[in-house]
Amino acid sequence: MSKARTSFARTGAVHFALIAYTLVALFPVFLTIANSFKSRNAIFREPLAFPTPESFSLIGYETVLKQGDFVGYFQNSVVVTVVSIALVLLFGAMAAFALSEYRFRGNTLMGLYLALGIMIPIRLGTVAILQGMVATNLVNTLTALILVYTAQGLPLAVFILSEFMRTVSDDLKNAGRIDGLSEYAIFFRLVLPLVRPAMATVAVFTMIPIWNDLWFPLILAPAETTKTVTLGSQIFIGQFVTNWNAVLSALSLAIFPVLVLYVIFSRQLIRGITAGAVK
Amino acid sequence: MGSLQLKSIRKAYGGHEVLKGIDLEVKDGEFVIFVGPSGCGKSTLLRTIAGLEDATSGSVQIDGVEVGHVAPAKRGIAMVFQSYALYPHLTVKDNMGLGLKQAGVPKPEIEEKVGKAAGMLSLEPYLARRPAELSGGQRQRVAIGRAIVREPKLFLFDEPLSNLDAALRVNTRLEIARLHRSLQATMIYVTHDQVEAMTLADKIVVLNGGRIEQVGSPMELYNRPANLFVAGFIGSPQMNFIDGDRFGDGEAKTVGIRPEHIGLSRDGGDWKAKVIHVEHLGADTIVYLESDEVGPLTVRLFGEHRYAADDVVHATPVIGGMHRFDTDGRVINSGQ
């Protein structure tokens, strides 16, 4: 910002607001991580304190790693999330391209139909989905979860991406057609790179609910080999006794993969190669 | 190298007809320009020739071959777009070579053709750059280079100079004229700028409301406009239109005189008039008049003249500079 348009008071106010928001947003994360390194008594005695040499304990992490196959749960979560995002992005972008690029009868209706899923929660169909999965022998497989999450993510992806694809210059696509690129080449080589920031946005919005979901893993894939992290952590939460050390440790561990994925996507959000492509 | 025949091309979007039966013949090596006000269908016509839009009916023939069902890439055309439409992720060299690469031309041949085109447009220093690192004029030269490399039967230009500033526009215009001379290629060019049309074209096609108003060389259109629309569209400042009744001309509904075909004098002349406003352009002086006899008039005088607002002057039309139009707006040929 130029010096002429800033004043100390205004900059200060902006920074105050941002810092306050950051504190609020980070507080639960801090609480989870700090308490995961404390002994059970210390958690309840002073929940807000940092771990001290006296209260420090790795008992939570030990429990988590001993009990059940946590590495396996992690793998399941990562596989389900990454494959679902990939499918949502691929099919969502393709549908969005068709809707924004081609004029055909029922184009608008088709767009509305594809966006309908944003308004209707997929959980309403749980019973039917379960019946379908039982009938196709997909219960207790990761495929079941991937299929459901792909369906869940597609409406928003189609909606956001078709809006973005309308902004890609027609001239560019036509230049590609004249140069002999197929429609697929135009889609993959010209349009997708230009809507990359939108793809990253969609990826982030799709990723978080999938990673955190408890509902569908519990219903469709509760077997030991297909448990996700969220479901795996539930064994520590009992009706009468909850192993807080273990729960907090499991949650702390669960934060990191999402963080890594987020960092990857947010780099895409920032990087823009589109500048100067078309005026 | 390339000729083009259009036969009764019609194009409708839903119920709205954009092209209402276009017939046109373009000979090999001609530079043809489509002009017209916005919404007249000139860009749609160009896109139909390119195959980016399908005509609702009618036929497009390139070199005598019907191309209605031929993909744009197989029609032997190249197109330059108003927005340049360069591939942002490719270097200048790859941008220019992509069409040939897609067509399966061997690499050394692509290199050679790109090198040659880059030489013609003095683009050699920029071959390794990406479009984002180029200025507007350079980008448009790359876009033109991309067209040249394909060695097409037909060059199609869709308002290629509209995004450039005035000085670059003149330079690029000269460059396109030079290219047309050296390549001897058939070029079809769409613009709404009549200066571009007059300076570049062998043949101008004036379009209005989806129909061709007149086809002819720039000087034909200037000297012998076929109707009121062409008379008003070609020439700047616009032709003066005077009600025929004021002349006592029973036959002509409207009489047109170009601003440069009227002389001014302080002493005496046909029409007495008051000066409303004067524009001094250096080489020209444009004088706006209000006359009791014939209404408002625009007069273009060459050189500098010391007229000022509220002066009383006399305007006299140059003999033979009058264009007479009937009630339908068509020109009346009287002894010309």
From TrEMBL, chain A:
Membrane spanning stretches: 12-34, 78-99, 111-130, 142-165, 186-211, 246-265
Gene3D superfamilies documented for this protein: MetI-like
InterPro entries: MetI-like (IPR000515), MetI-like_sf (IPR035906)
Membrane topology: Multi-pass membrane protein
Domain of life of the native organism: Bacteria
GO biological process, one term: transmembrane transport
Keywords: Cell membrane, Membrane, Transmembrane, Transmembrane helix, Transport
Cellular localization per UniProt: Cell membrane
Listed GO CC annotations: plasma membrane
Organism for this UniProt entry: Rhizobium fredii (Sinorhizobium fredii)
Domain ABC transmembrane type-1: 74-265
Listed PANTHER family: ABC TRANSPORTER PERMEASE PROTEIN MG189-RELATED, ABC TRANSPORTER PERMEASE PROTEIN MG189-RELATED-RELATED
Protein name: ABC transporter permease subunit
Family of this protein: Belongs to the binding-protein-dependent transport system permease family.
Family matches, as PROSITE patterns: ABC_TM1
UniProtKB/TrEMBL annotation, chain B:
Keywords: ATP-binding, Hydrolase, Nucleotide-binding, Transport
InterPro entries: AAA+_ATPase, ABC_transporter-like_ATP-bd, ABC_transporter-like_CS, ABC_transpr_MalK-like, ABC_transpr_MalK/UgpC-like, Mo/tungstate-bd_C_term_dom, NA-bd_OB-fold, P-loop_NTPase
Lineage, top ranks: Bacteria, Pseudomonadati, Pseudomonadota, Alphaproteobacteria, Hyphomicrobiales
UniProt-listed Gene3D superfamilies: 2.40.50.100, Nucleic acid-binding proteins, P-loop containing nucleotide triphosphate hydrolases
Residue span(s) of domain ABC transporter: 4-234
Compartment(s) of residence: Cell inner membrane
Highest rank taxon of the organism: Bacteria
Protein name: ABC transporter ATP-binding protein
PANTHER family named in the record: MALTODEXTRIN IMPORT ATP-BINDING PROTEIN MSMX, MALTOSE_MALTODEXTRIN IMPORT ATP-BINDING PROTEIN MALK
EC number of the protein: 3.6.3.20
Species of the source: Sinorhizobium fredii (strain HH103)
Cellular component, GO annotation: ATP-binding cassette (ABC) transporter complex, substrate-binding subunit-containing; maltose transport complex
Main location class: membrane
Family indicated by similarity: Belongs to the ABC transporter superfamily.
Topology with respect to the bilayer: Peripheral membrane protein
Pfam families: ABC_tran, TOBE_2
Gene Ontology terms for molecular function: ABC-type maltose transporter activity; ATP binding; ATP hydrolysis activity
